[in-house]
Each structure stands twice: as C-alpha cells, then as structure tokens.
DNA sequence: ATTTTTAGTTAATCTATGTTATTTTTTTTA
DNA sequence: TAAAAAAAATAACATAGATTAACTAAAAAT
C-alpha cells in the first residue's frame, strides 16, 4: 500500500480537507501518495484549448486562471485560482473529452496535482472524499449560478464591484486587462469607467 | 426502520439514480421513505425570495423555473426544470440562510420533494448518495460555468440558439417572455430579433 | 541600460440592445 | 362566449459598451 509523509507543501490542502471531513492518519498518507507537487513559472500553461485535462489542481502559492477564447482572440476568464483554490476544466475531467479551457499561471506558482485516475481511486478507496468534493462542487455551483445571473443583469460597474468582492487579494496584483477579461468588457472601456469623474450632482441647479 | 413501496411516481427518479449508483432493495425503500409527492398548479410558488429553501425538488411532470428579480422588477431566469430535472436554491439549501431565488410552476406539475434534513440523513445512512449528488453537482457546475461565459461573450441571437439547444422540449411550450428572461434581453428586443428579415446581402450592388 | 513588448489612456464614432409608447393578438377568466 | 388580462409586434429614440486609432507609460527581454 502507498503511503506518503505529509510535508509543508501539503498543509494548505490538508487544512481545506479537514474543514469538511476527518481523515485517519493512514487515509491521509494514502491520499497524499496520489498527490504530486508541481512548480510553474509565470505564463506557463497547465492546459491548452483542445487538450484533455488529466489533473485537478490545487494552488499552494501564486495564482492560476482559466479562460476561453472566441474567434476574434478575445479572452473570457472563467476563474482565478489564488492560494488555496482548486482549478481545472471540470467538463474535460468529467467526460475525458478535450475541453475548451486554457489554464495558465499569472505568477510563479506551486501546485498540488491529483490525476483523474487517482481521483477515481480516492473515491473508491476513501469514500468520504465523495462528501468533500460534493460539498466543494456545490459551493462552486452556487458561485457560478450567481455569476451567470450577474453577467446577465448587472452593468460593467457592478460586475467590477462583484469582482473586487470575490477576489479581494487580487485587485492590486493583476492587470486591468485581466479584470476586463473577467467582467467581460474591453480594456479600453474598463479604463474609461475607472477614470471618468463621478457625474457631478446637478440637482443643486435644478429649477422647478 | 422506515420503508416505502415504490410507486409509478418514483420511476423517473429511480431511473436517474440507477444511472449513477446501484441501490439494494432496502436502500431504495429507505430512500423513498424520505421522499414526498407534491402536485402544484401553474403559477403556484414553491419558494419565494427571502425564504429558506427546505426542499430539493425533482420534477416528475410539468416544469418549474427559478429566477431572481432586480429592483426594477425585471426577472432573470436561472434555470428551467422540465421533467426529470432537479431544482432548488442551492445557496439556501447549503447555508440554511434565506435565498434570493423564486421558484414557481410554469405548468401544472408533479414533484418529488426531499427535505434538507432528510437529505442529510440519506448522506449519512446511504453514503453512496454522496457519489450520486456529487456527480449531479459537477454536471450542473459545468453547465453554469458554460452559461456564465456565454452570458459574457455571446450576442443575444447566439444565446437564443444555446437556449434552444439546452431546452429543446421547451421552445414551443413557453412564452417568448420567459425565453427573454432566460437569455437576458427585453421581450421587445427578442420579438424584434426573431422577426427582423435576415439582412439582404447587398454585396451584389457594391461598386469598386 | 537600451530596446522591444505589453498595458493603459483618451477620444471620436459606431452598434447592440434598452426604453417608452401604441396597437394587435392571444390567453385567461368570468 | 364576452370581457379582461397578458403577451407579442412595431417603431422612434436613448445609451452602455465596442471599435478604431493614436499616444504614453510601464514591464520584459536583450
């Protein structure tokens, strides 16, 4: 049977898991034997459009992003994954088909990878991981349900505010261009939006 | 121990479950003892904004919809749930907090309800339901991830086409008003979009 | 350190979609 | 089946955000 000694690299992940399920020592070691550490440089790709995604990725440090591209080369960012977040192309992971997402690193990052194959083993051998990933999937679902509605109903300014709220640690670390691709406007429009003087309140001069 | 004889009302649900997990007869009966049948009339509410959602709902026949409202009274439809679909306010179900969704019936419908409390019992007593609902949550997640991106990147015409593809059984059953609220345009604009002649190709007359 | 590349700013013009209002058609209810 | 209510169609006008282009500032690469 595989075992693996937990190292500092695993702290963040084990912490996330322990919030939802309790693992015996041997279960923890067994699980970690399926996990591999990977370091990537800024701009390095973890997944390109049309590839099958073989790994669920947990971000230990740094930040990843997943995005799609349209025929004009425009980017639309589906998700940022700063420290402590999971990321992957769920469609491709589930179906084992090539996906439409690209995933790359916004900064030098350290990741923990678990392959789809090993994840299936984990589900079989330590069934309570079904509980852990069910809860995670449900939370992520709520978040994307909310964003799908926000993207229909809110103006760019309001979507910007939601972004700031959702990723408070990123606002001053990533470029406006990335934020624009997340809220779905052109960088030119975002720039204008952030610089235009708040409209002067002209009520003071209203007559009648 | 609770048991319950499966009736015709449960066929569709049991079929959905058996696609993902295999239940022993006693597990099936145990599970069904937690499920109640409910019939609702067209326009009847299952959940109103600000209420806590106590039930996950499975649609046996008819169709439900979940939606949010903005301050101007505009509706934004998060999901239709025709026959064989689950629906609920996942945020409220998870957190037990009041949610922002309304859920009501577009037609007379028959539902199977399982309360949050009983669902927690099911997870504990028949752990493989964690697998079933994990897989469902993951599929639903993919669907909402995709829609969130589509709502940013596609024009109304394309969102209309995606709607037709996603709910092929609904196109000729629900009003344009509902479709407009799903794709995020005004009913006036949708009407114009569907009636405007496809632009005549004037290239033939181009000079130089 | 200098060059090259990328990101951000600004502004004029354009377009997809919203707004308001009126009329017609369809559906629901009495 | 008539009356009332809701949905759909149409059209004139308004606006949020896109497009294009030129310029400046900041990073990255040599």
Walkthrough of the structure:
The structure is a homodimer. In chain A, the strands form two sheets. Chain A has a four-stranded antiparallel sheet. In chain A, strands 2-7-4-5 form a four-stranded antiparallel sheet. Chain A has two domains: about 10-155, Jelly Rolls (Sandwich); about 155-195. The first copy, chain A, is elongated and about 60 Å long. The first copy, chain A, is about 40% helix and about 20% strand. In chain A, α7 packs across α8. With about 210 residues, the first copy, chain A, is of the alpha+beta class. Chain A is built from eight helices and eight strands; from the N terminus they run ααββββββαββααααα. The first copy, chain A, has helices at about 10-20, 25-30, 90-95, 115-125, 130-155, 155-165, 175-185, 185-195, and strands at about 35-40, 45, 55-60, 65-70, 75-80, 85, 100-105, 110-115. Chain A binds a DNA duplex (30 and 30 nucleotides) through α8.
